[in-house]
Structure formats: C-alpha cells, structure tokens
Specification:
This protein is mostly helical and about 130 residues long. The protein is built from 8 helices and 2 strands. The longest helix has 13 residues.
C-alpha cells in the first residue's frame, strides 16, 4: 500500500495530489493515506501538504525502496540494463550516463570526508604524520 501511495506521488511529481484522489484510487480511507504519508516522511521523503491542495513529493531519500529494487531487477532480467550500458559505453553513446554517475559519486559527502582522511595516511605524502 505504501508503495502505491509513493508511486502515485511520483507520477504527479511537481503537482499536488489530493488525499481523496489517492484514497479512491487505492480503495482506502483518507486517514490510511495520511498514515502512509507520515511513514514515508519518517523514512526521509520530503512531502509537502496543504489543506484543500493535497500532497506533493519534493524530495526522495538516497535509498532503494523495494519498488525501485524490483524495477532494477526487471531491467536486468529483460536485458534493458545491458542494452543501455552497451549503448552508453559505445562510441556513439559517449559514456554520458557513466560520466554523470561518476560525477555524482565523486560529489557524495563520503568522498569529501574520505579525501580529508586520506591526507592523513603516510603513504599519500612522504611521512606526513611523522614530519608534522
């Protein structure tokens, strides 16, 4: 049920979706929708809500939901992942997706912290710890 509410919000990303519309589509009460929205917020989803306007998905946490994992597995099983990978890595593809993912990973907070920590290792700079 929670995945259905999340998918409903994703499909209408950028726009508001009324709790009534979601409750009718999911065949549950508006209270049940509200509880699922609350649970999604606790998992890190940024969901805006206004009276008489509804809910709007603003941001998703950096984690894989079961629904996202199912989609990834489906892409692997039906060959979509391999086809996209080969196309991206070919001369014609120019590695655009690969380069974008690499840039995104390099900008991650753990990389920034790791860079500072690696400066402390002696093998990164000749005897840096001893000569300080």
């Amino acid at each position: 049920m929670r995945d259905e509410v999340l998918e409903f919000l994703r499909q209408n990303q950028g726009g508001f979706v009324s709790g009534q519309d979601m409750s009718e589509a999911c065949h549950v009460s508006r209270t049940a929708i509200w509880k699922h929205i609350k649970a999604l917020r606790q998992k890190g989803y940024k969901i805006e809500s206004y009276t008489k306007r509804g809910y709007r998905l603003l941001e998703e946490p950096d984690l894989l939901s079961p629904l996202a994992m199912k989609q990834i597995l489906k892409d692997i099983q039906d060959g979509t992942f391999a086809k996209d990978f080969l196309l991206d890595m070919s001369q014609a593809g120019g590695q655009a997706h690969f380069k974008a993912m690499r840039k995104l990973a390099a900008e991650h907070e753990s990389e920034k912290v790791g860079k500072e920590i690696r400066k402390l290792y002696s093998w990164s700079d000749e005897d840096k710890l001893i000569n300080n």
